[in-house]
Amino acid sequence: MPESRLAPTAAAPNLPIINLGAGQSKTIGRGRQADVVVDDASLSRLHARVTVDSSGQLAVDDLGSTNGIFVNGTEQLSAYLTPGDVIRFGRIEYMVSLADAPPAAEAPAVSQTILRRVAITDTPKVDKLALEALLATSREMMGFDDLPALLERVLDRLASIVKPDRAAILLLDPATGALIPRAVRPSGAYQSVSEFASSTVVNEALNSRDVFIVYDIRMDPRLQQAASVLLAGVRSVVCVPLLGRNGPIGALYADKLGVEQFPPELAEYAAAFAGHAAAALETAQLYDDRERHFRATLEAFAKAIDARDHYTAGHSERVTAYSLVLARRSGQYAAEFETIRRAGMLHDIGKVGVPDAVLLKSGSLDPLERTLIEAHVIIGHGMLEPLPFLGASLPAVRGHHERWDGAGYPDRLEGMDIHPHARLMAVADSYDAMTSARPYRDALPATEAARRLRADSGAQFDPQMVELFDAVEEEFAALHEEPDAAALRSELLRSVG
Ligand SMILES: [Fe+2]
Fold first, then answer.
1. What is the pLDDT of residues 305-314, one digit of tens each?
2. Rounded to the nearest whole angstrom, what is the distance from the C-alpha of residue 492 to the centroid of ligand 1?
């Protein structure tokens, strides 16, 4: 039997040729533990495994690499290879060939299937390579704590395993018990669960708690009457229940149209994949719920803070909205929106420790009263410090009254020593203070507030933050000026962070 050969498409001294005989397997990676060490930073330590089975079929599996494997330009988790295929690990390309070409009749069957074949025996055999690829996927999926991003990734992986024409993730709404399509490929392919083979497929899978697969719908009497199947021209369907700790949380659904069928090995692999996907989705859902409750709690806190003084009603929410607008504009804080949101909502929480007689006083403040008011940043910092999930928001809570010229409080920090979130929030906070009425003065017009911000650039405010404000001044005004401002703010707070 000829050897399979992987040769680099561009010759280089650090790129070995890889030869594999039947039954051989080699790992490829940058690390010393790899069988084939490729000295290139774009590869993971253990990037991939190439294997030739006893029949001469060459396959490659991703071992959880960072930069993935691409076969003929398409990212694959696991793929069969055939002579002429170009496979890319990171940015290194190899071409597949046979070391000595066999007679045509002996050439391995050309197959684009990306499923590792699982031998069907009485006692299920654990396919180590498939398991490794699955574990890599599982580890990757458990790293997501953002539900929408995870849904997309699960569909990516499902697509690379199953190669469906259409696919969807359905999740149970715990409140209503209804199944909702939460992610769909191609987008808009499905609007409701009733389109999933008249729900027959989904119900079968959920009721049996097992993979439901129909290789050829024309041969299956259960789906002969399903109008949606017949209308769409569905040939082959697979549906796998997503089982959480306390029962089903949803299902993965995929179908093929036209003439192509799912391969017979799909069921086992799909079940294993769904097990990992369910664990990751359940965790992300819990996180999502916790996030939502947490946000609601923050908003309640913020309202309670602002309610003590009717002049400051809505202040925390507006400061949060302005801060997020500045952060979004700068482009530097994309990963920190949530931190900034929390800081904005809670920046004045320490005011709960300031006596009413001082907080609500309409006349000018004496030095002692000023000290008491200024203490709100230290009180707030002390209140939130024990809460680990607010740790990153503390610098803005403590520092939003620091001044660029060093004359602020509580730490008299200066310039870049002030945390960027605090410098950003100082602009947002002052804009809202100026454009809101006070017992001793009317609200300033937005244009006057903007003029004063610019005049104080380099004194009270970081010039870079004022530049950012210049770019979004109209957005600030829109978020401030009723009657549309409240709706705009809540939309912004919902969509950013
Ligand atoms: Fe404040």
1. 777 776 777 8
2. 22
